[in-house]
Amino acid sequence: MSDAAPLSGLCVLDLTELLPGPYATQQLAEMGAEVIKVERPAGDAARVMFPGLFSAVNRGKKSVTLNLKDDTDRAAFLKLAERADVVIEGYRPGVTTRLGIDYDTLRALNPGLVYCSVSGYGQTGPARDWPGHDLNYAAMAGAVAISGAPNGPPEYTTGVPIGDLSAAMYAIITILAALRGRDATGQGQYLDVSITDALASWVAPRHGVWDAGRRAGKDVTKADILRRAAYGIFETADAKFITIGAIETHFFRRLIRATGMTGFDDPALDDFAARTALADDIRAALTPLIAAKPFAHWAEVFEAEDVPFAPVNALDDLALDPHLKAREVVREVGNAQVIAFPVPMAGIDHPAEEVPTLGQHQAEILGKSDEAT
Predict the structure, then answer these.
(1) Which of 57, 198, 238, 315 has CB atoms 3.0–4.6 Å from 166's, for a disulfide?
(2) Does 221 map to a domain?
(3) Residues with catalytic annotation?
(4) In a domain, 157, yes or no
């Protein structure tokens, strides 16, 4: 008999659209929760705008459509909320109160409910009502200012929506923590997840470097935070790219041995700060050496010499990469390739599969709710 999934029996009502909330509830569904996606009659906007994204973050959910401005549909939602463990919503602050589905209203029906609001800037503060997207939140959180070239202007360089995903992870963490707290108290709670605050938390390691300088009376620049010797992306002879991360002294010395790089044997360069001061010179010396041989050569050499390296995989490389393949990171679901839940756990044998059509589970979910009353 197979193990039950970790969140089996947990019921989540998902009122969110696009990315942060749906990604969070997708991960809960992967861990076995029943996630009921409550959509507007027109559906989640991502169904039309970003259908690939929609499929990626809504597998395994059940879809119902409700017009929460309509008294009958709102009553149907309130019935669902009476038996739910979690409600997660992504409206702007104040909208749920106007709709009559805010935390205080639902808590009166279900004191054990965990209610999570995910918004760009949080439920309080002067920016709470601002519209925004990942770029805006990343900018306010300090991530944009320290991205890009060390001596360059602020850039939004990541291809991954780090603000949205950081908020999704904090939604998951705090929902599970609140459920654990409910085990002891019987009471749910309200969670105010700000995308900006979540990403600011991820900026904390860089902020710590800046703050140490501030306390020491030093002006810490973006270059001071980002510059690393022997750390970067290099093109190989066969027009592929390889990443090298020889930050520590022992790795730097192995890199010199592996590449035959000259001019950096001075024992003084065992000091991290001394190497950092020569970061541009080290890169200039390393670039032509890496460019002279194909990727396979360097992969073999660096693995043998224990130098930190990795390929720069394009999206179409992920399913073919030998390591990711061995870890079963990419799975086949029908004719789709999906990224599997990343942590092996008892009860999680395969990815959630079906992407729900709009309102696909209307009769099942609302009928079950009627039977429960």
Answers:
(1) 198
(2) no
(3) 164
(4) yes
Q: How does pLDDT run across 74-116, given as a tens digit for each residue?
A: 999 999 999 999 999 999 999 999 999 999 999 999 999 999 9
Mean pLDDT of the chain: 95
Are 283 and 258 within 8 A, CB to CB?
A: no
- What is the pTM for the complete model shown? 0.93
Per-residue confidence band for 367, with pLDDT thresholds at 50, 70 and 90: confident
Task: Return the bridge partners of 231, or none.
Answer: 245
Judge if 85 and 132 occupy the same domain.
Answer: yes
113: Cβ contacts below 8 Å, ≥ 6 apart: 81, 84, 85, 86, 87, 103, 106, 107, 188
**Residues of the chain above pLDDT 70, percent:** 98
Report whether pLDDT(371) > 80. Answer: no
* Strands across the sheet containing 190-194: 62-65, 34-39, 11-14, 86-89, 114-119, 190-194
| Residue 26, both tokens | 């997708």
Q: Comparing 44-48, 222-226, 298-302, which segment has the lowest mean pLDDT?
A: 222-226
* 49 & 192 share domain: yes
Q: Is the dihedral of CA 266, 267, 268, 273 positive or negative?
A: positive
Q: Are residues 238 and 303 in the same domain?
A: yes
CB atoms within 10 A of CB 213: 15
Task: Please state the rounded mean pLDDT for residues 242-264.
Answer: 97
What range does the domain containing 247 cover? 227-312
CATH of the domain at 61: 3.40.50.10540
Angstrom CA distances, 162 to 19, 50, 123, stand at: 11, 18, 20
Total domains present in the chain = 2
- CATH at 237: 3.30.1540.10
Q: Which amino acid is at 349?
A: D
* Helix, strand, coil % over all residues of the chain, rounded to 5: 45, 15, 40
Q: What is the token pair recorded at 308?
A: 């930190």
In a domain, 328, yes or no: no
d(CA 256, CA 234): 15
